[in-house]
Amino acid sequence: MTAALPAQKRKARILVVDDDPGLLRLLTIRLRAENYEVEAVDSGALALTTASRFRPDLVITDLRMDEMDGIGLLREIQTRYPGLKVIMLTAHGTIPDAVQATQMGAFGFLTKPIDKQELLDQVQRALRISGFSDSGEDWRSEIITRSSVMEERLAQAHMVAGTDARVLITGESGTGKELLARAIHKGSPRRHKPFISISCDDTAEELLESELFGHATGVLPGSAQAQSGAFQAAEGGTLLLDEIGDMPLRLQAKLLRVLQDNAIRPVGSTENIPVNVRLITATRRDLRTLLAQGAFREDLFYRLNVVHIEMPSLARHREDIPLLVGHFLAALATETGVRKIYAPEALELLATADWPGNIRQLSNVVRQNFAMSQTPIIPVELVQQSLGSSSGGRLPSFDEARDEFTRSYLSQILQITGGNVSQAARLAKRNRTDFYKLLNRHQLLPDDFKHRSQE
After folding, report:
1. Domain spanning 140-310, CATH architecture
2. Quick one: which H or E segment has residue 325?
3. Any idea what DSSP says for residue 393?
4. DSSP code string of 112-141
5. 10 Å Cβ neighbour count for 167?
6. In this predicted structure, which of 237-246, 299-308, 323-332 has the lowest mean pLDDT?
7. Nearest to residue 215, comparing CAs of 251, 272, 266, 270?
8. Is domain 13-130 classified as CATH 3.40.50.2300?
């Protein structure tokens, strides 16, 4: 067995924005000389387009630019990428504006002409405070994807990981909400502290209250001593409250008080205990519908929904299915010492089947097929049996299969061209108008496929 190679450290990515070509070139040279990965653009609009594929760890922007100035860019970045630090560049006469920008949330400002050491000091401090880690992509290693849709969600997660902003993760069951919460924790400055996950569904109210807030001696039947709750167990780290939409109203009120006071009061106690916890919540339910029904507190909703990340269903990143299947098979091979693969027609059936249970259902089917197969090649009949029990035996119709092929083809060609519609239309040998109609028919957005050409 060969020793695993150490993970290659990732360079910090810095996006530099200035409409002065000379200064843009100078800053790029200085930052690249310090081993930073730099993308340089000359306008705020181009900066926003570039940020979606480059996924910067820091933005350095001029304050005064035509069309969108540095203040406008700062506002857009705060909306789209909470937690992404921004350093302003300013001439002497615009220092008051730069001070205003820092009051609005900019990390700091540098006065032209830019002093090299001051630039590097501010960059290092901004990256350190944002929680940037150079340990490769370890923070997201549990999430297996090549989908541009998923990459966009991961980019959001990485931006917010360096802050203590509360995150609400929504999505259908089995889409990987807890995995994303763990990734945010692993990418944060709290990564060396505990990550605790508590599910709020199918739990008796009194038991859930005790699990969350702890209880004093003798409060619960048979309890001879006080017990700490999840908020105390996660001290300094991250607490995930899964299925927050199922939390009873009384406990919602108690949770709201914790968020307001940064302190908990264990069940049966009269004393408040300070807590230092980063809170992430997740739910499969539509909280706005619950608000309208009076089943969820509006004040709590706005406390929790500081940053919202929606996890897509597996049907929206179907190109990941072969990759996920390979990952699950490799894990089973490690677990059992036996290697098995799917027959091509079996893998094709997996890639085109309905997955109402999303990634969790796919994982269960692969595990079931692996256990039931008597040969190293898993046959299509086993997949049909599994889908028959989980999907009513339904195979896609010819029209559905054709649409699925077309959507997959369009996704691949957009992936290849990085979302460039003109190039994609030429490769498909279709005129641009017809190609746009195809994209609209199959609900594909070119912006979802804009990605970095090199990672």
Report:
1. 3-Layer(aba) Sandwich (3.40)
2. helix 321-336
3. T
4. SSPPHHHHHHHHHHHHHHHT---STTGGGT
5. 26
6. 323-332
7. 266
8. yes
φ and ψ at residue 8, rounded to 5 degrees = -75, 130
Which long-range contacts (C-beta less than 8 Å, at least 24 apart) are formed by 438-445?
A: 438/406, 438/410, 439/410, 442/403, 442/406, 442/407, 442/410, 444/407, 444/410, 444/411, 444/414
Separation of alpha carbons 9 and 444, rounded Å: 34
No. of H helices and E strands in the chain? Answer: 19, 14
Q: How far apart are CA 214 and CA 216, in angstroms?
A: 7
The pLDDT assigned to 446 comes to 82
In 186-328, at which residue ranges do the beta strands (DSSP E only) sit?
195-199, 238-242, 263-264, 273-274, 278-283, 307-310
CB crowding 268-296: b at 16 or more within 10 Å, else e:
ebeeebebebbbbbbbbeebeebeeeebb
Query: What DSSP character marks residue 267?
Result: B
Residue 410 is which amino acid?
A: L
User: What's the token pair of residue 312?
Assistant: 């897509």
Extract the tokens encoding 407.
């959507």
Fold that domain 314-391 belongs to in CATH: Helicase, Ruva Protein; domain 3 (1.10.8)
Q: Is the pLDDT of residue 292 over 90?
A: yes
Contacts of 300 (CB under 8 A, 6+ apart): 252, 253, 255, 256, 259
